[in-house]
Amino acid sequence: xxxxxxxxxxxxxGNGGNGRLSFLHEKNRPNGGPDGGNGGRGGSIYLRAxxxxxxxxxxxxxKTFYAPDGENGDIKNLYGRKGEDLYIDLPVGSVxxxxxxxxxxxxxxxxxxxxxxxxxxxxxxxxxxxxxxRNKAPKIAxxxxxxxxxxxxxxxKLLADVGIIGFPSVGKSTFISCVTNSKxxxxxxxxxTLVPNLGVTYLKDxxxxxxxxxxxxxxxxxxxxxxxxxxxxxxxxxxxLIHLVDMDSxxxxxxxxxxxxxxxxxxxxxxxxxxxxxxxxxxxxxxxEEKFNKFKKTMKKHGVEVYSISSLEGKNLDxxxxxVADLLQTAKTYPVYDENDEEETYDLTKTADIFDIKKxxxxxxxxxxxxxxxxxxxxxxxxEEGMLKLIQYLEKIxxxxxLHKMGAKNGDTIKLEDFEFEYFE
Length: 425
Ligand SMILES: Nc1nc2c(ncn2[C@@H]2O[C@H](COP(=O)(O)OP(=O)(O)OP(=O)(O)O)[C@@H](O)[C@H]2O)c(=O)[nH]1
Ligand SMILES: [Mg+2]
Fold this sequence. Notes:
This protein has about 425 residues and is an alpha/beta fold. It has 8 helices and 18 strands. It binds guanosine-5'-triphosphate and magnesium ion.
């Protein structure tokens, strides 16, 4: 199966349907009241953690997701139908970021977890909603609000307790095959493993945990050398690392060890802070034994305890697994995103000002601000009353006052998006 662990999706929730402007016309009631119904809400887009898929392969090509719009309101007080919500199923372990700001949006780390990504736009109110004692025949209806648009990057970060790391060909896949049910591919050439493999190990004392066998790391992996970078992210969820160092290679084991540590450090995300079990691998020949003893001494000087194993002979494998299980009991879980980098959600109650005004030339002012624009989009200004309502609203929130303070003169042009009017004191 093709392993795809990154996808970019364009999502847009549905627009709200427009409110209807209408008056009841029946033979026996020629002047019936307003009966324009409300528009329906646009469909929302939800992300859902699903166990039915384990990669993002389904989203390699499917890039755009639109939830349907709400229907417009109708006469006789008929409400427009709501747009149907859309659920996007992503594999458990998917982490979602904004494509534009790169900020964290959500972590689908549990099966069934649901996240509202784009809320459908609110439907506009029909004129039946605006009937008041003072105005029994309101000629005013709101437009529906536009849906929300988000371009997201989905990254799959595997859910494993333990990551097995080390240079290529140090015996990572052989180890996981010996201690779990994983059928990892094993080869005497570098980069045999191209995608991470998961396996579960069960200890005799009843404890169990998930191990992830990683593709080999090399110096510069965090910069994208070898296969490193794209797979380091799968270690982000692990809480303990098994670091294999080859005792049957021509390289210097301590240099190998240091090089991998440096990669972990440079990658960030607290990889370097995770408890690690350092293991000399392939210790099944006198030469390897000798090499291991030297390595052990050097490491002792640096205060690091090391273990030796031979997957071929099944030597000391349990010892390593028990050590890992002990560490897991107290190992902490680190977030899979930078804590300072959470996507800000727009909160109306927190925004200080409703609007701002910019003077763009001697006789032109432009009104800006998210809240004032929001209201503007709600008002159908093709209707006289809508226009009036907008003008009244601007006055109420203090636009006229501010224009006066800014020195606006009668006849100056005031712009609010595509709407223009003349300033009159
Ligand atoms: N002598 C000996 N050879 C081993 C041992 N474990 C693995 N090997 C050999 O080392 C080679 C590489 O093993 P893999 O398990 O594929 O190594 P890897 O670390 O997964 O390699 P990449 O996936 O390429 O990073 C294979 O030829 C294995 O047979 C061991 O305990 N003793
Ligand atoms: Mg391998």
